[in-house]
Amino acid sequence: MLTLTQIKFEFKSNTPILLSNMGNINKISGDALRKSLSRMAKTSAIRRFQKGICDIPEKTIFGQSPLNPADVIRRKYLSATKNQYGLLTGLALLNKWGLTSPVAKPIEISTNNQSNRKRQVCIGDQEVSYDPKY
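The structure corresponding to this sequence follows.
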């Protein structure tokens, strides 16, 4: 069984925890992992952001701090701790470099971390269009 102390040992508070990254903890099956995460979410030990994404909420004087969708996008599609498997493209890249002022509504990403077809998904309130041709 997965415990909260094991999760806190691997992940910091208020950082995205992807279900796909948690398979190495304690070497438990996927069903047992999902069941223990569901129990922790019911007791508010962890917070679900979206399907397959959760975090350990950080308590501040204003209440629980929300999880930043940009952190989720970076962790899921661009890079983990030391491994980079994706990059920004299109207007999002030009905006990051300061070459254009409009912010792209769907952020365009090329990544090796996803399936073999182009998709458009919504992470929080931000649209992400990824293409696995990186």
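The chain is about 30% helix and 25% strand.
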